[in-house]
Each structure stands twice: as C-alpha cells, then as structure tokens.
Amino acid sequence: MRRLRALAVASLAIATTLTGSTQVTADTRDKITINVWLNDYPIPGYLAARVKAAEDFNRLYPRYHVNVVPYDYTKLPADLSKAAKEGKHPTIANYYSNAVQVALDTGDRRGKPLFKSVEKAIGKRDHVLGQQNVLPDLVPAYRSYYTRRGDLTSMPTTAMTSLLFANTTVLAAAGITEVPRTWAALEAACDAIAKLPDGPPHCATWANHNWFPQQAVLQQDAPLANHGNGRFGRATRVDLDSAALRSYVSWLDGLHDKGHFLYTTNADQTWEGVFQAFGSQQVAFALSSANTAGLFASMGQQGGFQTAAGRMPYNDAVPLSGNLVTGDSLWLADGLDKATEDGALAFMLFLNNPDNAVAWHKSNHYLPMTRTAVRRLEAEGWFTANPADRIAIDQVNANTGTPAALGPVLGDFHGVQTALTSAVHDVLVGGADPATRLRQADHEAQRHLSTYNAWCASGGQRHANCFRIYPLG
Asked: Are 460 and 375 found together in one domain?
C-alpha cells in the first residue's frame, strides 16, 4: 500500500504532505490547483485508474492541476475535519458510504457546513467546462443513496453489493440445480448437502460483518433508524430490536446450530477465514462482495471445482425491498471561487463519463456508475464473460427506493455496527437468546448515536469517536 501511495504521488509530479498541501513548482504555479483527497483501501492497485484519470484530466485542461492525495479511509474524516478548522481542507473529499452523516456534520473554521450540494452546484447545466452532466444518467440506486431531502449531496464514484458464491460441483452432487435465492432455499440446500457422504463439513460461511445483517433488514423494508432512516432529518433513534433483525439472527443461529454455518472469527475484517473455507471446500456457499467474483472463480479453477454466483438470499416470508448499495462518493467544498468550483465539478463528471466509468469497472469489478456505462459493457459482451457483474447490477436495480431499502444515515455508524456484530457473535458463540441479546445491542447502539448527536453535531470541539469509520472488510 505504501508503494501505491508513492506511485500515485510521483505519477502526478507533486509533493504532498499528510494534510494535502502542495509544494509549488514551476509546473503548477500558474495553474488552478484542485486538491482531491481519495480513500485508499488495502487492495493492490486500487487507485491506479483514478491516478490515470487525474493525469488525463490535467492534460485535457492545462489550466488546472488535479492533485490526488491517497488517504487511509479510516483516517480521512478526522484529518479532514482538523484541516478544515485550519482552513487547509481539500477542494474535493472522498467519504465512505457509512460516513455520510460525518460529512454532513463536518464544518469549516467558522462552524458552517464544509460541503455544498453537488446537484445544486451543477444546477440546470447540461455541461460543465465541456463535461456532460452525468447526474441524470447515474444508476438510480446510487443516486438515491446519497440523496437527502430530494438533494444529491455528493457524487457517487464507487458502488458495491454482496452476492452468494457457490461450489456448483457440490450442488450438482446434491441434486441442486440453481444457486438458492431465499433463506428457505439456502437452508434446504444445506440440508441436502449435509446428506452427501463425501460432502463439505459445513454448508455456508460469511464474515460477521455488519454489512450482512444490515442488508437482511433492508431487504425486509425495515428501517434501522427514525426520521426516514435519517434521510428526512437527523436520526435520533436507532432500532436493532426490530422483527426483521430478530428474524435474520434467529435464522442464522438455526443454520449454525445445525452445523450448516461455519463461523470463522468475530468481525473477521480480513475475510481470510471465509476465502480459505471456500477454497478448501469446507463449505459450498460463501457471501462476499460482488467484486470478489474473480477470486472465487480462481479458487474453483485451482481446486478443480465449478463455481457460480447468485443474488444475496432474502427472507421470502415478506416482500423483497432490495439490497443495500455501499461505496464511496465525492464531496465538494463550499466557498470556492467559480473557476475552482467548475474545475472540481468538471473533474467529478470526468471520472463518471462513459470511458472512465467503464475503465473503473473493468479495473476492479465495482459496479458501473451510469446506465450508459452498463449499456456499453453489454454491447461489448462483458457480462457474458463476467456474469456475476450482471447479477450484481440486476440486484441493485431491484431496489425499491424506500428509505428503509436505501439504508440509514447515522452518526457514529461504527459504534452502531459494532454493537450489532457483537450481538451476532454472542448468539452464535455464547448461545445468547437472539431477542434478548438484540435488545441489549439496541441500548448500546442508542448510546453511541445519542453521544454522537450530543458531541459531534455541533461545530465545536468534537470527540475522536465522531470520526470512527467501520472497516470495509
């Protein structure tokens, strides 16, 4: 990762510090500098396509110099808030999707909101500095996730969802002809697999990561917070004691009690236990991010078995509302002069133009950001060669767009999510009663949210917990 950061900075021919300030050189002295702090993740080559896009933009617009600063995504919100208080914040800042409330609450040195609406900044313009306005072309689920009170607050640039990956060689031996789509179908498949004389010791696995119980709740159109899941106003009440969440944890506990579910480790943020279990054929199913499809296919090739992907199973006892979209978005600093603001907007639009949206998807299999990019990939035959990508797109397109289905906007989401995963751990490992343990988790999560609202919603001194980001996994 250090080598990637060094490459990113060197390739832009600039010198940056951890606060994002730029060393003035002969090449940049007469240019308008656009400082862009981008989240960096522990994924080899993650930002390579972004660095190239910045270089391309700089060549296309000699008046501007986009200065990319790679940042540890867990540290960016706190460091940016500190820089904003000193008047040293970047032009564009990248926040992970579970930090929307943190971005909304981040203030400048006068205590005013640091960021302005991307949609309002673009206004009714079809183009900004020749770059087409792609906001109407964004995949609706991505646009809706970052829309609050009818206003698109930031520019979505990365999106992902989760899929169920299957060892179809084992499935065929058990007489299963398709990847299960519901909780009941997955449990029935596990019952059949358990009867195989030489089958895997367990049926399914996934990390104890907040992503999965959260999605299970949203699939059932149940909110995790009040005020429209925090989308109509600040969330002041969290709900980890819902019937939807109890249904999921009880179902998972039942799979575990039968020996069907392999629990690796609590909050297995590396996910290595999941990958190792699938690759060594200890399980036939694994839930993971859609963009890991290539990894699962490679495991099958190396292990001599066939693989396939399917949508994340859901509770078919209630109507399916959709699946959560997570990822990243870019936030625009307020108070910029027109030339700088237009340059920043043009760069955001440039990143999501058809060429760059397709290139970004191909570089890492994150979901294509616009409908035009999807159509172009279809025309190229990309989805024929990469069927998991098509399944992922269809899954997010099925989102009903209700506040519950879109997911919550919460303060100290890290604390809330940790309370939830700790409860799941205690149910699976400690034998805790799901309903009782979730009530306890609900009280704990409420303390986190209330503390955030008391300490972090104002523009004054803010506690370090205000900026905690739950690990991506």
From this structure: no
Is residue 402 in a domain? no
CA quadruple 211, 416, 454, 115: dihedral, nearest 10: -10
Beta strands in 292-345, from DSSP E residues, in sequence order = 307-311, 326-333
**What is the rounded distance in angstroms from the CA atom of residue 332 to the CA atom of residue 463?**
24
Name the strand (E) or helix (H) holding 158.
Answer: strand 155-160
Do 340 and 431 have their domain in common? no
Q: How many other CB atoms are found less than 10 A from the CB of residue 59?
A: 8
- Asked whether residue 472 is assigned to any structural domain, the reply reads no
* 41 located within any domain: yes
Judgement on whether residues 179 and 40 belong to the same structural domain of the protein: no
Does a structural domain hold residue 147?
yes
On whether both 337 and 318 belong to a single domain, the answer is no
Question: Which residue reads 């003035």 in tokens?
Answer: 24
Q: What is the pTM of this model?
A: 0.91
Residue environment code for 85-96, b if the CB has 16+ CB neighbours within 10 A, otherwise e: beeebbbbbbbb
Number of domains, the chain = 2
Tokens 């790679």, residue?
70
Do 54 and 140 sit in the same domain of this protein?
yes
Contacts of 313 (CB under 8 A, 6+ apart): 164, 180, 181, 182, 183, 185, 186
Closest among 451, 397, 379, 387 to 419, alpha carbons compared: 451
Q: Which residues pair with 94 in a beta bridge?
A: 330
Q: Which amino acid is at 68?
A: V
Which residue segment(s) compose the domain that 240 sits in? 162-323+411-467
Are 105 and 12 found together in one domain?
yes
Q: Which tokens hold the place of 454? A: 């008391």
What tokens were used for 373? 């990019």
The tens place of each residue's pLDDT in the chain, 473 residues long, gives: 333 333 333 333 323 333 333 444 546 678 999 999 999 988 888 899 999 999 999 999 999 999 999 999 889 999 999 999 999 999 999 999 999 999 999 999 888 999 999 999 999 999 999 999 999 999 999 999 999 888 999 999 999 999 999 999 999 999 999 999 999 999 999 999 999 999 999 999 999 999 999 999 999 999 999 999 999 999 999 999 999 999 999 999 999 999 999 998 655 456 889 999 999 999 999 999 999 999 999 999 999 999 999 999 999 999 999 998 899 999 999 999 999 999 999 999 999 999 999 999 999 999 999 999 999 999 999 999 999 999 999 999 999 999 999 999 999 999 999 999 999 999 999 999 999 999 999 999 999 999 999 988 765 556 667 887 766 64
d(CA 116, CA 113): 8
Domain harbouring 289, CATH code: 3.40.190.10
What are the structure tokens assigned to 1, written together?
């990762």
Token output for 22? 């730029």
